Amino acid sequence: MTSKRAKRLNVRMSQSDYEALARAAGASGLTISDFVRFRCLEDDGRPRIVVDAEALRALYSNERRIGGLLNQLLRHANTRHQDFPQLAAQAQTALAQLEESTRQVSELIAEARISA
Q1: Distance (Å, rounded) from C-alpha 114 to C-alpha 102?
Q2: What is the band of 82 on the pLDDT scale with cuts at 50, 70, 90?
Q3: Which bin fits 46, alpha (ψ -120 to 50), beta or left (φ > 0)?
Q4: Do 91 and 77 form a contact (C-beta atoms < 8 A)?
Q5: What is the Cα–Cα distance from 94 to 110, expressed in whole angstroms?
Q6: CB-based contacts of 96, cutoff 8 Å, min separation 6
Q7: How far is Cα 4 from Cα 22, in angstroms, rounded to an integer?
Q8: How many CB atoms within 10 Å of residue 66?
Q9: Entry pTM
């Protein structure tokens, strides 16, 4: 026979764990109880990708800078309607930097999947 009354669950945790839980609940727009209930009962179980936000910001900034360089190179080539050897070298440098940045983003994602 099951009771229809609400049951209470008490969980002990450190102050820092509680504060982290409260921040996560607040960021989700939920109360702590609703957040815990959702994560325990309704969460779809898919792995969550967690990354270092500062590292991601640095990569994003780097890719924006590279995009700006490529944009300048393309504008220059378009307005001159000429083939400049140094322009090709600069484009190759920018593309190499973009490739490295993309590799770093890929590594961040791979690490996040392993730790999830």
Answers
A1: 19
A2: low
A3: beta
A4: no
A5: 24
A6: none
A7: 28
A8: 20
A9: 0.42
